[in-house]
Design brief:
Elements lengths: L2 H15 L3 E2 H8 L3 H17 L4 E6 L2 E6 L4 H8 L9 H13 L2 E2 H8 L4 H9 L3 E6 L7 E5 L1 H6 L18 H11 L7
Antiparallel strand pairs: 1-3, 2-3, 4-6, 5-6
Length: about 190
């Protein structure tokens, strides 16, 4: 298949999936190398960016997904009659930060860090698809462990957890990190 046809096929696959799709899966379906697929995906990302399209292709770890530009969120919500999500509470932001920086973690770990019960907050973060169960520890009671989701990456407009701001050196700066995380979410999907 010619280069332009391959690029069009990659674009069609990313569009049709609707959810993040691994470059390796695209490569297998087109019978080309993963490296070539990543190159084609990056070319597409660049082309969408250059033409200031209402659609963009985002990289989420090893996956690619099509999404709309944030500036068109309000008209899209109006047409689709979607109500705007409420922002995260201070407690939810803190729990999310503890999980994001220390994952995978148990609810008991989060509660130990925060000093209060987190059951309701963890449930709300799961409902918002920002965190998910990642398995169980091999300890008595087999406690659940939690980690962030691909939806978390989309909401905070980052490709991987490596892009999270560094943790502060002292405890007084912890509030600054939580504020930075919330401010960074303004660049991605509203949560």
């Amino acid at each position: 298949m010619k280069e332009e046809k391959l690029k069009s096929a990659v674009e069609a696959i990313i569009f049709a999936c609707g959810t993040p799709v691994e470059a390796e899966r695209i490569a297998q379906s087109l019978e080309i190398s993963t490296e070539k697929t990543v190159g084609l995906c990056e070319q597409l990302r660049s082309e969408y960016e250059k033409r200031h399209s209402g659609i963009r292709i985002v990289r989420l770890g090893e996956c690619y997904q099509m999404c709309t530009e944030e500036e068109y969120a309000d008209p899209i919500r109006t047409v689709m009659d979607i109500r705007r999500n409420t922002p995260l509470s201070q407690a939810a932001s803190e729990v999310l930060a503890v999980i994001a920086y220390n994952q995978p973690v148990t609810k008991a770990f989060v509660e130990q860090v925060r000093g209060v019960d987190c059951s309701g907050v963890v449930a709300s973060l799961i409902a918002r698809q920002l965190i998910e169960e990642k398995g169980r520890l091999e300890l008595p009671g087999r406690p659940l462990i939690y980690g962030t989701t691909e939806h978390f990456l989309r909401c905070f407009n980052i490709s991987s957890l490596d892009e999270l701001p560094p943790l502060p050196a002292d405890e007084e700066s912890t509030e600054e990190v939580n504020t930075e995380i919330i401010e960074e979410s303004d660049g991605g999907e509203k949560i």
